[in-house]
Amino acid sequence: MKELQVELDNNRSYPIYIGSGLLTQPDLLSKHIRSKQVLIVTNDTIAPLYLAKLQATLTQYQLESVILPDGEQYKTLQYLEKVFDQLLAKKFSRNATLIALGGGVIGDMGGFAAACYQRGIAFIQIPTTLLAQVDSSVGGKTGVNHPLGKNMIGAFYQPQCVIADADVLDTLDDRQLSAGLAEVIKYGLIRDAEFLLWLEANMSKLLARDKAALAYAIERSCINKAEVVGEDEFESGVRATLNLGHTFGHAIETGSGYGHYLHGEAVAIGTCFAADLSRRLGWLNDADVARIIGIFRAANLPVTPPAELSTEQYVDLMAVDKKNVDGKIRVILLEAIGKASLPVNVDLSALQATLNSYVG
Structurally, how many domains does the chain consist of? Predict the structure, then answer.
């Protein structure tokens, strides 16, 4: 097992555990659980696979569970209420612990429920997708979607720990695996050019689920994420660079209907948009853009946008984004391969040119 640390102030630092068989290690979990009351939040895909295994590891606790439907379209306040209903019905106290067992949607919703219930209870992230293990489970971003914008309702709320059990990836389907690789590639593009070279050389191993390759990619991604979060917990500076491709990607997710594209798929397309816009500003060249498109294609990810969204719809949807200030659309771009910009106020003519080149 590897143990990394997310370094935060005021004694709020926490570990990321990466290894195999971690779901069956009661001592690993118990040192992060405050009282006898434990609520496991999961979904109807993960529950048949791993809920009983986790419950068997935690027999000494008063265990309850909530099983939500699986999918981005259920990441709403309406379904979040089901978590609060169970916490209240079972009379959970402020010392209770919530465990989020699932992918990014469950992690975001479980963390937000923990942040809100009695103004904050402890929670543990047990991510079950590659995307969640390398990105969304680390850093304390929690929340739900709204029909007008993705992740616009939420809170920064850090977990007690993150437990990334590589064994759960054995049941992950190929599409979800590729979606997770989009966020892995992101780290190489924004801050770790050496890692990007490794990814280009080892993509076939990752797609073939080579255990050693996956373990290295997860660890290196978490190291990158932990360093950024430790430097900028509340996204006032460098942490915003983790949103490369996300402003475009969130527009795709919202405009296409939540759940039509997986988050990583939308981010891959959005990063191709961002690369094109970076080229138009003179930061990247044609070869750089081709290289970026090439690695996403190698990961079996889409690189072209949905045909049904117009350029006007993109602009409207991108106007609803957490990075925007005073009504100006701001995006993360690439100054070079391995170096992301801080949020850039977008010149609308350049944005339109990029959108037109893809959308038509």
Answer: 2
